[in-house]
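Write out the 3D structure for:
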Amino acid sequence: MPEAPVTREEIENAPIKAKIRAGEEVVKRALEEYDSENTVIGFTGGKDSTLTAWLVKRVCEREGLDKPRFMFVDHGQHFDELEDYVERLADDWGFEVLTAKNEDLIEKADEPGEMVPVAELNDTNQEEAARIDEDMDEVPWLMDTEAGNHLLKTVPMNSLLEEEGINAVINGVRWDEHESRGDEDFYSPRDEPEHIRVHPILQLDERDVWDVSWFHMTPDITGIDINSYPETEEDLPEGLSKEDVPISPKYWAGFRSLGSEVSTDKSEDKPAWLQDVENTKERAGRAQNKDDKEIMDKLRRLGYM
């Protein structure tokens, strides 16, 4: 396992450029130890995974390394705009996409929220449902529940890791995002299946993410400096459109955290980066019981990212 380039105490109050360099070093050390062919980026199309992919892109292009693939977990309830964004960004940045999907559960439900009898699921899903609750008779086709989250995200992800022989997953999780992630490490070994989780943006808070996204990542990608947060597309420098910048379109619409289409609401009407991110909850628009710390801790023990 690589050695972390900095300690938490060293990086939390560092200048933003130092935080970016630390993230790049986390990626570089991981890719030096784990072959890119056996490494994936957990890519959701959200702001954190986009920023993580940008760090990986920069390191790979600077160091002459092959790019790892995106791992996109399709729970069947994504915003259409988000799926389009994932495809566009992967194509623009030169990443292949692996898709993990629990077809067995999804194909047995006709609409989001519908309950599916556990007895009708395959053996793997029955076993995984029992890990959540051994007395569970039904599971929902709904990501934002304890059982649904595990079966729709973690189970297909783990299956893909095993099938593809993946030994490293680069994820965009942050210390400030949820209290269950507050003691996470830059390199975190996991089992069932055995692999390492690599976390290059732990040190960024939500405001940092938007500052890096607009004032560092976007100029790097477009070649055009951004000097202030845009409120609308008309505020972008001449020649730039929403499609040119690596910012998922739902954030323009006021969403701050992107869950499923059926259970995520915008926080406000103004873009996410213009909201009071310092004093309000990032995930307030997501209707999910997994934000309870006890439930989140349990899901993470079962492999949730």
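The mean pLDDT is 92.
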